[in-house]
Amino acid sequence: MTRHSRSAPLAALTPTHTGPVSWQRLLKWLHEDGVISAEESERTAQRCSHAESAQPALERLASVGVARASDGAALDVEELTRFLARRAQLEYLRIDPLKVDAGKVADSMSASYAERHKVLPVQVTAAELVVATSEPFVTDWVAEVERQARRSVRRVVASPAAIRRYTAEFFALARSVRAAQKSGGAAGTASFEQLVELGKSGRQLDANDQGVIQVVDWLWQYAFNQRASDIHLEPRREQGVIRFRIDGVLHPVYQVPPGVMNAITARVKLLGRMDVVERRRPQDGRIKTRNPAGEEVEMRLSTLPTAFGEKLVMRIFDPETAVKDLAQLGFTPHDAERWQALVARPHGIILVTGPTGSGKTTTLYSTLRRVATEEVNVSTIEDPIENIDPRLNQTQVQPQLDFGFAEGVRALMRQDPDIIMIGEIRDLETAEMAVQAALTGHLVFSTLHTNDAPSAFTRLMELGVPSYLLGATMLGVLAQRLVRTLCPQCRQPDEQAGTELLAEAVRPWKINKGNYRPFKAVGCVDCRMTGYRGRMGIYELLAVSDAFRAVVHGDTSIAALRKQAVQDGMHPLRLAGAMRAAEGLTTLAEIIAATPPLQ
Contact at 8 Å (CB) between 437 and 397? Predict the structure, then answer.
């Protein structure tokens, strides 16, 4: 949640007005304080006088596009709300739903009272209740709320649209949780069986079970709106915790009673076609739904038994990833050109390496979608299938049937493939099948868990793959990491940042100091005061040359491989990231935290 109390010259520092603010009075104040010109005030008054409207004054003026005197830009609702807050000598608040405890909000005031007075509690402490209003000069409700809540009320000003939206969301969520708690609050197992039977029979759900469904629907839409990449449902001793991962960082969202958490987990498992009753072993599943924009969104589900119940993680796959080009993924022109040349080769092995959550899946799927034309057969063997695409022939390994990666590749070889994607090379047998596929004229993509690109060769040799086969089949290795990008709305040049830290981070490399334009994270309402919005990939691309093949042998050192790769044009991860920081896209601190040091 973001508060602003910036001072500005106002014509009247003491609020003398009482009651609702009309658009005429707000327009007069804007003119008095020099925010708009006299001509703009007159023009707006004429436009608004032509028709009556039930819109609040803030929204009415925003809808007609009142032009600011300083630059001619139209004032939006938030800017007008900020002005009104200064006029009333109150704090302006842009409501961040992730920082509001909806349960406490609903307990501090009834939904009907909040709707009637157009106010919304946003924070509850032992001594104070913070209430958002869009009418700062209407105060007849304050004394009654203080008496009922037994706390002092502190008013803040928020836009009327935000108050309407979150009043509906917070109180509906609280009602759904209470209804779900009545349904399965104490007896978690009963709620499982109840949901299973209802799902099987198709009977009309009663109000209590409808509460669980509403909580799950709200959870998904909320996650999509907040750009979450993962939803975590975590059972604890006293309360279940719901958290979202946004731009790589987990944010607490809501706490629910253990029985409600069990019912939510059961509902999601039911929709994901998982065994709802089985809670003793991990399970995987998937759900396809739609986001508020109407786009199909796929979620991968994973459950894990913990001390206090079943933990569920839903990984959300962004539908926009399918249409991102290499520059949007974070490739520099230098690496994008080399990567496109590699994937255009007719046969060989291309590996993508990095830790879990570094974006390997996104890079592979984005690449496969581009090479999967009607002229080629692209087949995959995965564990599990991360993202279903109609252009790919996708198969999932089934260890219980002795159908692993090696068996899958062996079967795919008889399916006349042109391009094969292996989810991960974990053992010698899978590595040997990948090499065999490349030797017989197929282009093979796969992933490996190593810290950098040259280490992929030593890892495969440690598994037992002969060095001469690696030299004959390997085309390239792409190592990658994800780093947070600076928010474009609030980033500011970092005047304090010298070139010494940059030089130390990339030593023995050198970056042209004339191109160093460091920016720092500041924080605004768009980035939730973190200073960062979104993530981008940084890449280390090793393209195998004849000179590199000459140094790939049984007793080669990682240092020799790295030296030759650099001579062939590879930019190490730390250097590639530092170049992005020099461009002002991220910070050097982010790069140092995400990448291994140069050696």
Answer: no
* Amino acid type, 297: V
Kindly provide the residue ranges of all beta strands, DSSP E only, lying in 141-223, ordered along the sequence.
152-157
How far from chain centre, in Å, is Cα 403?
34
Reading the chain (599 residues) residue by residue, the pLDDT tens digits are 555 544 444 444 445 678 888 888 988 999 888 888 888 888 888 888 876 777 888 888 888 888 888 888 888 888 999 999 999 999 999 888 878 887 788 888 888 999 999 999 999 988 899 999 999 999 999 999 999 888 999 999 999 999 998 888 888 878 777 776 666 544 443 333 343 443 343 333 332 457 778 788 888 988 988 889 999 999 988 888 999 999 888 988 888 888 788 888 988 998 888 988 888 899 988 888 888 888 888 898 999 999 888 999 999 987 666 567 788 888 988 899 999 999 999 999 999 999 988 889 889 988 998 899 999 999 999 987 877 888 999 999 988 888 988 999 999 999 999 999 999 999 999 999 999 999 999 999 999 999 999 999 999 999 999 999 999 999 999 999 999 999 998 999 887 777 777 777 788 887 776 678 889 999 887 887 889 999 999 999 999 999 999 999 888 889 999 999 999 999 999 999 988 988 889 998 899 999 988 87
Q: Which of 335, 414, 406, 411 is nearest to 367 (CA)?
A: 335
Q: Which residue matches tokens 């290795």?
A: 477
Is residue 19 packed enough to be buried (19+ CB in 10 Å), middle (13-18) or exposed (0-12)? exposed
326, β-bridge pairs: none
Residues 469 and 444 sit within 8 Å (Cβ to Cβ): no
pTM of this structure = 0.74
d(CA 56, CA 97): 22
Q: 461: helix, coil or strand? A: helix
For residue 575, the number of C-alpha atoms closer than 13 Å in the C-beta half-sphere is: 17
Residue 322, judged by CB atoms within 10 A of its CB (0-12, 13-18, 19+), counts as middle
**Amino acid at residue number 468:** Y
d(CA 108, CA 21): 26
Q: Say which residue the tokens 């994800």 belong to.
A: 482
Q: Which residues are CB-neighbours of 250 under 8 A, at least 6 positions away?
A: 232, 243, 244
Alpha helices in 243-325 (DSSP H): 258-271
Report how far residue 63's alpha carbon sits from residue 47's, in angstroms, rounded to the nearest whole number: 11
Place of tokens 């034309």: 373
> 171 vs 115, 150, 160, 274, CA distance in Å?
10, 21, 17, 31
Q: Which residue has the tokens 């496969």?
A: 368
What is the C-alpha separation between 1 and 8, in angstroms, rounded?
Answer: 22
Residue type, 41: S
563 is written with which tokens?
């030296």
Q: Residue 518 carries which side chain, given as an amino acid letter? A: P
Token reading at 38: 């006299």
CB count in 10 Å sphere of residue 570: 26
311 forms beta bridges with 304
